[in-house]
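Example 1378.
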Amino acid sequence: MTVRFEIGFTRYLAPNGKLVPGLPPFAADAKTIIPLYEAMVRARVFDAKAVALWRTGRLGTFASSLGQEAVAVGAASAMQETDVLLPSFREHGAQLWRGVTPVELLLYWGGDERGSDFKGPRQDFPVCVPVASHVPHAVGVALACKLRRERRAALCILGDGATSKGDVAEALNIAGVWRLPVVFVINNNQWAISVPVSRQTAAETLAQKGIAAGIPSLQVDGNDVVAVRMAVAGALERARTGGGASLIEAITYRLADHTTADDASRYRDDADVSPHWLEEPLIRVRTFLTEAGLWSKKDEEHLLQETTAEIEAAATAYLGIPTQNVSTIFDYTFEKLPEDLVTQRQHALGRRVQSAAPPAVQS
Amino acid sequence: MTVRFEIGFTRYLAPNGKLVPGLPPFAADAKTIIPLYEAMVRARVFDAKAVALWRTGRLGTFASSLGQEAVAVGAASAMQETDVLLPSFREHGAQLWRGVTPVELLLYWGGDERGSDFKGPRQDFPVCVPVASHVPHAVGVALACKLRRERRAALCILGDGATSKGDVAEALNIAGVWRLPVVFVINNNQWAISVPVSRQTAAETLAQKGIAAGIPSLQVDGNDVVAVRMAVAGALERARTGGGASLIEAITYRLADHTTADDASRYRDDADVSPHWLEEPLIRVRTFLTEAGLWSKKDEEHLLQETTAEIEAAATAYLGIPTQNVSTIFDYTFEKLPEDLVTQRQHALGRRVQSAAPPAVQS
Amino acid sequence: MAELKMVQSINLALARAMEEDARVLVLGEDVGVDGGVFRATEGLLGRFGADRVLDTPLAEAAIAGLSVGLAAQGFRPVAEIQFTGFIYPTIDQLANHASRLRTRTRGRLTCPMVLRSPAGGGIRAVEHHSESPEAMLAQIPGLRVVIPSSPLKAYGLLLAAIRDPDPVVFLEPTRLYRAFMEETPDDGAALPLDSCFIQREGSHVTLVAWGAMLRDALGAADLLAQEGTEAEVIDVATLKPLDEATILESVAKTGRCVIAHEAPLTAGFGAEIAARLAGRGLTSLLAPVERVTGYDTVMPLPRLEAAYLPGQDEIAAAARRTMSYK
Amino acid sequence: MAELKMVQSINLALARAMEEDARVLVLGEDVGVDGGVFRATEGLLGRFGADRVLDTPLAEAAIAGLSVGLAAQGFRPVAEIQFTGFIYPTIDQLANHASRLRTRTRGRLTCPMVLRSPAGGGIRAVEHHSESPEAMLAQIPGLRVVIPSSPLKAYGLLLAAIRDPDPVVFLEPTRLYRAFMEETPDDGAALPLDSCFIQREGSHVTLVAWGAMLRDALGAADLLAQEGTEAEVIDVATLKPLDEATILESVAKTGRCVIAHEAPLTAGFGAEIAARLAGRGLTSLLAPVERVTGYDTVMPLPRLEAAYLPGQDEIAAAARRTMSYK
Ligand SMILES: Cc1ncc(C[n+]2csc(CCOP(=O)(O)OP(=O)(O)O)c2C)c(N)n1
Ligand SMILES: Cc1ncc(C[n+]2csc(CCOP(=O)(O)OP(=O)(O)O)c2C)c(N)n1
Ligand SMILES: [Mg+2]
Ligand SMILES: [Mg+2]
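Predicted structure in complex with thiamine diphosphate:
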């Protein structure tokens, strides 16, 4: 009566850019990998610009995704347009892939709610700051898809630290027992602020959190955009076709500080970090593409130039957007503003407050 | 890089009273099983009396443990006096073993806080009604034991339904990563009110909830008091000696209604229940002891008589205990009553309210 | 048209809402096969099927959280938390998500969900089954908090709550579930979510209450009437957003006010009403505002419950104090 | 004796409490190696070791719950919730356990724990990092709620909270952490947990505030002084249990009262204070009680934060209204 479980691990592209088994079907034509590379570069350029804006006091506290671009891009690129993304706060790469604009992202991190009113993926959830609290939302979204008998699924990205929250266990369990169309992707960047994953849990893998919920769970190399994309695509397709939920742990590394408010040197040495630069997700794809004859120095320069121009333009646009009217503090509280709030809005409109855009450096 | 797990299952005493492998060390002398049998009978007699008191309006809503006595007695009997018990609300058998008196239990279920002021096991936790919310307490108790370098452990009993609560996952995870001296025993009585365990989770076992936390986990026959005792004793000893936390799923069955306020016929048929009467925990021990020449009809009669007399006396004593003074509503709110509450207590003492003991039937 | 108990009128409203709008779902612990531990959802599973009536695993935080997801997708989940003593784990979702999804996304995503929960004391229930945390919930911006006081109110307010495009917490006083019957036509008529109800008119003193305490207020009004004091009784069934105007107008007429609730005194919702009177209502006040409430202690176990819960005698006594003031 | 910022005085009080009582533990997310995201626990790990300063996994409900277990076993856990926006998952443990363990067991088990949490707005932080839920917590019977308004207060009140035999929630206004310095001797002197502080004496109007808003109240008093209005300023640092007497006495003298807090108006703790004035304090009132508060909306993201938070100008304006009343 012994019951057995196992957690597998997959990788396609090794850190040196070599293929481990062979390319998966979606990349039979290796060219399909180019857009993934471009999207990872875009995320990285965006991150760098956001940090720069923060440094000069023109953006709020910001969480860079440096080094984890393959998780975001691999997962989002596996989605269909009608699927729903529920990101945490470090998935800019996924949001950008989905059609959230750099301006919207900057607006959000710059302290303006309009940044979450995505003009593109209207059903995607906004950034979620309270760790893990979006995970049950994914279960609700998936239930909605299932009840409507739609071929859609929810994709929820969470961190390694998030796996310690009860919300995750509750959500996984329900997704499991109701066989819901949802895929949970853990961005295991090995740190939750100052807490390394070894002090977050005694579990040998984070994927095994899914065993508790009876859902298929596996690990992938989270620095391998091909592996992430393959695993998520498979899980999403199973989800859309009635096969239920799954959990994918993508193992990567947080190369930057936790956020711009953090100083990682307080709790980890450069020596801990530097080996991980050898495994980061961009180099291996560039090496692979280059060796496959699909990518040149010129392509690289061109891409960087274009992307930088796009992000710079977005930053300029962001900085030019005036602060919302004070009335908006009230206008979206309820569909129809109750009497009590009408009075309060009146009061607020009458106040003289210091002008407040763009926001200053935060603690 | 595949990681493997397994959940084992143990049983010593089959439903027909036969030994499966042989007796474990603690029961090398089979006589040691007699007190376990007596304690299970005591729990059952207590349960019956409590339900009878409720029927006549002299006890509040009550949760019978009918059929699950082996979990409670097996687990509690594996404890040392200095260990700490954290029960849910269906572990009367464990509490009685620990030295909580039947009068105290009746007082509690009769609506009097003094029932949780145990004169015996002073450090044991009281009954916990909010499902699973006592599980993190066990982690705190275990941490206290560990920090003081004591050879003590916490024993926490929870239900199958409880395993769906985030509290449990959070607590298990911390107990795992901190290697705390705590044993979690799941009373898997296969129902959470009307929800069968198959609709509670897709997990093949409840023991595998422990895999998510990286702690040793196993299943036992929860109708086999010897198996429960053995498994819990081993886990507790490991806990006390620095080996960390474990999880034990004891598979049993809730033979009675969820509580006296419940009518199980609304959601399960007698036909579902009756097979489980063949597996209930008392008969097999009686059969075993009888066949071993250690138990006679006379012993049985004597036990029933004595136990009934004890519980009847406890019921009489309980019914004779006058309601606490109104002042006690206030007196234990803080160590020292703040001014605000002094005023309120004054007011309460001045009120004329209907006399209120013993309590009437509840909804 | 039939005389119904409150638990029946709630059941009727749920059925009606599900009938008229396919987006309405009922979910929670034991709401399906069992029909709810109080039978409020009885028969719904048979009538609407397992796609619309969902027995959930035992996980309150996730019940609230997945309701947010459902609502954002256009469903109208009506989730039950089996007792209000177990509502605390939902507060994170209510405060951090349900109540702010609309404003966070500038209206792109919304959260038309209802969280129903049996609340309050008076049925001698087991520990943690007699809580009245309405004020905690009423502090959350963007959340409506509704507490019915009768079968008819429960029917109309629950319909309104379900139809409302924003999140609503709907607290059902357990001791009213079967306390009395009321003619409750199944006419689909919702009651307003932004108005107090004047339950009884009077010009000498205003009694303000909600939920189960409303009956005590009405009882007190009867007692007072025998003494020639005409009490106006107001049911603040929709605590949040608060209809301040009705209360201020009444007190402008009577000059005296007694507010009653079961929840503890301090930071109870009665404080908000008294504060409005101390503010815009001050000039009306001819006597101190009296609050008749639970004490700032844990609700005792059943043997002493009656000594904790305020009742009509305390309300009447407080009203008399306001009447004889100065 | 040194001039300290509030974050430093909190650190000092923690160290002092750990020094004098081996039962005191510090735990929470990032409190150890990192020294806390605001550095409030900096240096404690090095000084007291990993048995007394524990970096926990990311699990607020369990942090509160295991603190209950520790406290019942005789430890004095001081747990940090990294921001008050993440305190909601602890409310279940606070309301159902920490605050009632003593009364449930008739004093057999007790719960001397402290839950510290950075609270409030004004630092242009990311979403969910600017919450002021003190009134929700103050409604829980058996729980103390304390909010310091200066380095010195933080030191003395935190020591008192840690030494107190019952559970205390200790909310630390983030915008005060580094806002100003104050002479803070490390003399181990606790401040009382049951008294308001009269911060400034005056006879014309009473300004009541706590936490970060106290500075605004004092600022308003300065403004008013220039106009010849002497404001008395009261710091309600220990919200619960409330020291009503000090407030009533002050208003008995001034006849006018303005209450200020960052939290939303409705069911905010200001309501409780106004309600006391509308009750026992009514005869003193010469003007309506003014509440200067956050709005009943979600705290906006940083760009509009300044339009949400009330400040000294609003307090002064409200005070002027009370002065010119009638
Ligand atoms: C519920 C909650 N607790 C605490 C925080 C503060 N905090 C922000 S991010 C973070 C660590 C998250 O770690 P992880 O889940 O691994 O995500 P990562 O930041 O590494 O992407 C913490 C503790 C929060 N945002 N939410
Ligand atoms: C947090 C919480 N939610 C709901 C309830 C209502 N309730 C009481 S017992 C119970 C089922 C518990 O099932 P299980 O954990 O299997 O324990 P059992 O009753 O079978 O012993 C429920 C839903 C509760 N007490 N606490
Ligand atoms: Mg991480
Ligand atoms: Mg069960």
